[in-house]
Amino acid sequence: MGVLLEVKGLQTQFFTQDGVVNAVNGISYVLNEKETLAIVGESGSGKSVSVLSVMRLIPSPPGKIVAGEVIFEGQDVLKLDDEAIRHIRGNHIAMIFQDPMTSLNPVLTIYQQIGEALQLHLGMDKAQARQRAAELLEMVGIPEAENRLDDYPHQFSGGMRQRVMIAIGLSCNPKLLIADEPTTALDVTIQAQIVELVKKLKNDIGMAVIWITHDLGVVAGIAERVIVMYAGGIVEQAEVHELYANPRHPYTLGLLKSIPRMDMKRSQRLEPIEGLPPDLINLPPGCPFAPRCKYRIDRCTQEKPPLKEISPGHEVACWVDVTEGIGS
Amino acid sequence: MTNTAQNDILLEVKNLKMHFPITKGIVIQRTVGAVKAVDGLNFFIRRGETLGLVGESGCGKSTTGRSILQLYKPTAGQVIFKGEELTKMKRGHLRAMRRQMQIIFQDPYASLNPRMTVGAIIGEPLEIHHLAAGKEKRERVQQLLRQVGLNPYFVNRYPHEFSGGQRQRIGVARALAVNPEFIVCDEPISALDVSIQAQIINLLEELQGEYSLTYLFIAHDLSVVRHISDRVAVMYLGKIVELANRDELYENPQHPYTQALLSAVPIPDPVVEERRQRIILQGDVPSPVNPPKGCNFVTRCPRAMDICHEKEPPFRDMGGDHYTACWLYE
């Protein structure tokens, strides 16, 4: 499998009245063709900003990509002019967002919104675009697709709107679909529908997927590789089975221990991660997780640990060797 | 944590209905329909236990919590708290009863007045119920802050100075201020980050043990509900479809909706996820303005039969404290 996307030393900051918010602090990762990569983190971990930076969708000002390279199919996206980046967006990289209500235009019909991309990027005429739009809606599981082309977003339910968003995303056969918490606003039975749909479409079309979420359950079901982010940095990345079986960063361990599992009898109290995430304006000098970490040593508060490989494909940013497994 | 040896019932709900009228016209308003948010609930909660109430958005679980506390005036039915019927109670008497029943809200940003200090927020119920004033009140507020794991010196701060998890702790302290016996926890953790959720769950459990509190725990996260509840009720479109002891419900679900709901919950273990068979429900929840004839779940049920389209299934005792409303078992 070839490399589709390579992010090197990406750093994004927001210049606000209160100071410089260090949203993404020099992250590097590789995404292979047809791979599903999950980026996991809590609010403020930089997971969304990191992919918005890849798409060059950071509002500027106040945001700015201050360093790094984003190599997509051999070219650095960050060096492209506006016209060239527009060609990549939508055409090669598509994105779906958390809230399907606010990401659709309420005063345009569904056809107008799907057809726009088809006419713009693929140069279709109206009749072709209309036919393709109906096919796309059918593909994402909207019943009576042809009759619904002239409906407005408010006539669809939340799950159906997210399907429409996916249809728009897929309209130009992208090589990469970025899904930013696409199921967070949806109920669990609808979430299951959308997850199944994306998995199926990914196989049919052969695209790569970056799935951003805070839900470790969804990750376990959809991802092949996982990146865990904390305070704007990558703290751990590994193949999905390896990460859940052998989590090596104290934050990853903490997250897995703090969530109850529905398939198990209640055994004991949950083990929460004490404290709060750090202020991104005043990041501590060492490891950003150090103030909440129970494995902390002196070095952690002074020096930031680099991401290093501990076994093939498994990288951890921690000074301490946390060999304690889950449940021990 | 629980006290199931004491089998006495603290709260009983009988045929509770909460219909919100839909009106038309500006000058002359007439009622053209009703949103049947809660449509005939029967259940009880034992002293010291936690009853989990789960369901998807719009199924009426929050409305149930609020109707129990008489924050809405129920359309029909009875709510019997410690032997007293609340729905027909006079205002003054009801206010006195409210000292014993409190609520913790979902959104810690919207449920705290931004212009009040933390001390004023937590102290307000003490004043309303004439429980403490002056120095005594100040001391009580500080004690409450300590109990919920906050620094007692925070009394003069405003809500915006706190994170989501800390705000939820303030909400818990406010509910605890009047020494209630019963607390409705209305999605108390769903607005919080994963690592903070466990802190609040543990806090609620500790407080329950310490003060023998009874909880109605409303949530859509089925993993959390299994962790915290003694018994669990599953709601769909304004009705309870299944109610059972925690492990019984999760290991032996009877109603097709419960089965589908449980199968849809992702498990944080890739090995388990690979082997799971999901029941993917088709379509969406119908509108509570116009629920289907017969069983409310009939439009999405993979096992629907003829009778399901005609008659509403009775809420049936399956034995062992397990109840379900489904024609499959008649």
Characterization of the model:
- The complex is a heterodimer of chains A (328) and B (330).
- Chain A folds into 2 domains: 3-92 and 174-316, Rossmann fold (3-Layer(aba) Sandwich), CATH 3.40.50.300; 101-171, no CATH class.
- Chain A contains 11 helices and 12 strands.
- Chain A has helices at 47-54, 82-88, 110-122, 126-139, 145-148, 158-170, 188-205, 216-222, 240-245, 250-258, 298-302; strands at residues 3-16, 19-32, 36-40, 63-72, 75-76, 93-96, 176-180, 208-213, 225-230, 233-239, 308-311, 314-316.
- In chain A, helix 7 (188-205) links the parallel strand 7 and strand 8 (208-213).
- In chain A, helix 3 (110-122) crosses helix 4 (126-139) and helix 6 (158-170) runs parallel beside helix 7 (188-205).
- The mean pLDDT of chain A is 89.
- Helix content of chain B is 32%, strand content 24%.
- Chain B has a single domain, classed as Rossmann fold (3-Layer(aba) Sandwich), CATH 3.40.50.
- Chain B has helices spanning 61-68, 91-98, 118-128, 134-147, 164-176, 194-211, 222-228, 246-251, 256-264, 270-275, 306-310; strands at 9-24, 30-46, 50-54, 76-81, 84-85, 101-104, 182-186, 214-219, 231-236, 239-245, 316-317, 323-324.
- In chain B, helix 3 runs parallel beside helix 5 (164-176).
- In chain B, strand 9 (231-236) and strand 10 (239-245) form a beta hairpin.
- At the A-B interface, helix 7, helix 8, helix 9 and helix 10 of A face helix 6, helix 7, helix 8, helix 9 and helix 10 of B.
